[in-house]
Design goal:
Layout lengths: L2 H14 L5 H15 L3 H12 L11 H15 L4
Helix pairs in contact: 1-2, 1-4, 2-3, 3-4
């Protein structure tokens, strides 16, 4: 599986509710930094991943905010390749 397919699969796992933990989003962020730094993929995801705190309230991103971001990400990049 190439890195884009892997991060798309990670996004789908979050969307499905299989794992919505802070640790999981942190692992997604690390994967994005390792494989997509200075790319459109990283730019698309960076703000949401860095601000995800489902219990934090504004200015942090809620679980719903992350779901929306990742649904948009899958829609935007899911057909790439």
């Amino acid at each position: 599986m190439n890195p884009l397919e892997e991060i798309l699969e990670m996004a789908r796992k979050f969307i499905s509710g299989e794992d919505r933990s802070m640790e999981y989003v942190t692992s997604m962020e690390g994967f994005a930094v390792e494989h997509f730094m200075d790319s459109e993929v990283f730019e698309f995801l960076a703000e949401g991943m860095s601000l995800y705190r489902p219990w934090g309230g504004p200015p942090y991103w809620s679980e719903r905010d992350m779901i929306q971001l990742l649904e948009d990400f899958v829609r935007e990049f899911g057909t790439a390749g």
